[in-house]
Every structure is written in C-alpha cells, then in structure tokens.
Write a structure and sequence with these properties.
Layout: H1 17-31, H2 35-54, E1 60-65, E2 70-80, E3 89-91, H3 92-98, E4 107-112, H4 119-147, E5 152-161, E6 164-169, E7 174-178, E8 194-205, E9 208-214, H5 218-228, H6 230-233, E10 237-245, E11 249-256, H7 263-268, H8 273-281, E12 287-292, H9 297-304, E13 312-316, E14 321-326, H10 331-335, H11 340-349, E15 352-357, H12 358-365
Parallel strand pairs: 2-3, 7-9, 11-12, 14-15
Antiparallel strand pairs: 1-2, 2-4, 5-6, 5-8, 6-7, 8-9, 10-11, 13-14
Helix pairs in contact: 2-4, 5-8, 9-11
Length: 366
C-alpha cells in the first residue's frame, strides 16, 4: 500500500500591527518625512494589498488606530436604483438588507477585517508604500532646499564618482552633488572632509529630486561676502557684479549710497581680516580684486583692470568697447596670465576691452 505524502500547509504572513507602528516611528526619525505622510502611504499600500488579495476593485479605505494598535479595512458603495457597476454601486434592496434606513444616494460602508495577507499582496503593499514615500521625500527635498537656495551650508563629502563629489548636507541628511563645473579646480576633495557648499539649485530628475551644490560659482563668493561683511548683509554696501574663474581670480564690484562709507575698506576689513577669511575659505590661492563700482564707464574700467595702472581709456558706447593704454611695464599685469585679468574686467564691466602698451601709441604717431 502506497504511503500517503504529507501535505504541509504554508501559513501566509500575518500583519504585526505593533511592529508596523514601530517601523513608522523609526522611518519618521530617519527620513524626516512627517508621520501623517507615512501613515497615509501605509493606508494606500494596505488598500492595494487588500484589492490584490481579493481581486475586487471596489473602493476601500484603511483606518489605523495607533493608540489601540489596530487597523480596519472598509469598503464603500453608493446606493442606486439600478446597479451598473457592482464594485461602486449597490441596489436599494440590498442596501436595506444591511440597514433599513439606507436610501438612494447614501454611501454604504462595510467593515472588512482581513486576517492575513498573501506574499503577493504584501509585495503590492510594499511597492505602493515605497513609491508614496519616494514621492514624499522628493517633495520634502524640493520644498526644503528650494527655500535654502542661495545659502551656504556645511556638508560632509561621502563619495566621489566620475569626478562628481557627493556630499551629505549637514543637519538635513540630504545628498547633494557637486559636478566638475562647480568645483574649484585647485582644490583636492577627500571623502570625510567637511566643506562649505553653496546651494545652487534643486532639480527634478527621473531618479527624483537632486540638490546641486557649488563652490566654484559666483554665488558662493557673494554668500561668503554677505556672511563676512555686515555692511553688505544690512545693505549699506551693495554688490554690483561678481565674475570669477574659480581657484584663480575673482573680481567683485561694490558700492555704497552712503558717502561716509568706503565700500572697498568695508569688504577688506581691519588689517584685511574680512577678505583674508574669505580667501582662506577658498583654499588661500584665489586672488580677489575688490572694485569700486561707478556709473562712469571710464573710471569703472580703470578700476576693473586693477592691479594694473591705466593711463588712457577711450570708449565706444555704441559698440560697448574700450581701448585702454597702460605703461609698457604694466602690460602683462593688465592683461594677466593667459589674458585672465583683462578677460574678467571685460565681463565685470560689460565692455570689450583692448589693452595696448604706451609704446604702441608712439609708434603709431611716427
């Protein structure tokens, strides 16, 4: 006689509600997503799991009671004279069998208490919950970081991949990316270093919200000056323009409407303490030229070409161009290494600048 095979029954997982609420508390702490958002994600996931388990499409809602550590599932249908969609509608006759006071237009709420969820249903719930939480996290990042755009924050370098520096923004536990174009080329970045970064923008990508941070943009310099120079912070001294080649040279044009305030002196600080603090933050290598802005283009161009001395400037306002004559021995200083000084001066003032040595004007007169 053949021996009967023993058939084992595989128990489907039951829902540990207490563990569920404990997980909610932990997730709230780690993700900084509000408890209400997490609970709503759970409700949506459990409702999807129930539909997956039963194959029904009728609307359901989940009610969670944290105090009692329980959850309940309810379905609801609208009372109608003639039923066209049984998932959403129930006839008057059937409704009155549940409760005699039901009439057309009322909503019949029926409690359902599923004891177990199958593995497939649980997987469906997980997917819905994760998607809801991902959406909530992206919204949090967009809102939080959009409000901080233009600010400087401390960050910890967590990893470097394909020349991109990934940082964790302090206090917020959010990831930021500093791409090569936003880095200071003369700086070396190492995992674990704490650095200051400028919150440049937040963009929405196919992978979610992404925080773009920078140390190489002009905005970083602007924020450093606002932080170090109280007169700029309160508006006594104003920044007209900033141009920069990160790691090498920056030119910043400042002015004040108060005749008793010297904007350049305010930015430099006593014994250079303010400007030295900014240069130190940039690694100590980047030169910063503080230019006093004036509405007179000739004077402004002369200021912008510092540290070189200018002899003569003639401008063509229609072409927004300027011809500048400098002493022969100051030509290389005016042009700068690889043309950098003249190039930045042109960007700062908005004029095309052609620098010539004084000797060239004498040759032209022979």
């Amino acid at each position: 006689m053949a021996k009967k095979k023993k058939v084992e029954t595989i128990e489907e997982p039951t829902l540990d509600v207490q563990a569920l609420f404990e997980a909610v508390s932990e997730l709230e702490k780690e993700s900084k997503i509000s408890r209400d958002v997490i609970i709503e994600a759970l409700k949506a996931g459990m409702a999807s799991a129930y539909k997956k388990e039963t194959g029904e499409q009728r609307p359901v809602t989940v009610v969670m009671n944290e105090e009692k550590q329980t959850f309940s599932v309810y379905s609801y249908r609208t009372v109608v004279d003639e039923v066209y969609d049984p998932d959403y509608e129930i006839s008057v006759e059937d409704a009155k069998q549940i409760k005699d006071s039901y009439n057309v237009g009322d909503v019949v709420v029926e409690p359902i208490q599923p004891e177990k969820f199958s593995r497939i249903a649980a997987q469906t719930a997980k997917q819905v919950i994760l998607q809801r939480l991902t959406d909530a996290k992206n919204e949090y990042i967009m809102n939080e970081m959009s409000a901080r755009t233009g600010q400087i924050m401390n960050a910890i370098i967590r990893r470097i991949e394909n020349h991109n520096v990934f940082v964790e923004i302090a206090d917020l536990q959010l990831e930021g990316i500093m791409m090569p174009s936003d880095q200071i080329r003369t700086e070396k970045y190492r995992v674990g270093d704490v650095i200051k970064v400028y919150i440049k923008k937040v963009r929405d990508t196919q992978y979610g919200a992404q925080v773009i941070v920078s140390r190489g943009c002009a905005g970083f310099i602007r924020s450093l000056f606002i932080s170090e120079v109280p007169e700029i912070k309160v508006g006594i001294v104003k920044i007209q323009n900033i141009v920069r080649e990160a790691g090498f040279r920056t030119k910043i044009a400042v002015y004040s409407d108060d005749p008793n305030v010297d904007p350049k002196t305010a930015c430099i600080g006593t014994k250079g303490v303010r400007i030295n603090e900014i240069i130190s933050e940039l690694g100590g290598y980047e030169k910063i030229d503080i230019v006093e802005y004036t509405a007179d283009p000739i004077e402004y161009i002369a200021q912008a070409l510092q540290p070189a001395t200018v002899m003569v400037i003639s401008t063509n306002e229609d072409e927004k161009s300027a011809k500048v004559i400098v002493p022969d021995e100051k030509l290389s200083l005016a042009i700068g290494r690889n043309g950098q000084n003249a190039r930045l001066a042109a960007k700062l003032t908005g004029y095309k600048i052609d620098v010539k040595p004084y000797s060239s004007t004498l040759e032209g007169n022979e």
